[in-house]
Predict the 3D structure of the following.
Amino acid sequence: NYFSNPTLANGIVWDNSPDQIVNDSSNPTVTYSGIQSQDVWPGTGNINADPLFVDAPAGNLRIRRGSPCIDAGNNDAVPTGITTDLNGWSRFIDDPCTTDTGSGTGPIADMGAYEFMPADIDYSGTVNFADISIVAAHWQQSGGGDLAGADLNCDGVVDLADLAFLAENWLAGGL
């Protein structure tokens, strides 16, 4: 819109063509957002890194493990009364495997419309038996890597702590 002053916070604007944000005679304020551009979009906390969507071509814009958008938003930018994401998960889920790079007291909101849920190991949109089966398949394994995502607390072993985290989030979500 010409001569508008839009505000974007905690968003992801990625893979739009030819421009992510058209800035004709406006003064957008963009903070704590992932914006695909040649340079990092001006504003506090912005990044220019692939958000690692689960399956963007199919419309699944939830973010995968390792996304730079995890724990990278600004808690103060989440509107009052918003307590869940578009999947029904809490708007504030900490990923113990990701260093907080956002702003606020933890847990830090993620960039984008969906929070990353570590217990949704298979990215189905819900925490269910498929996720338990992945934990079971790697039970008591230890070592490098993320053990197929089953090491939910990143302590190097798949154990009761991971199962407890999964149980706390049982049947969360529901895409």
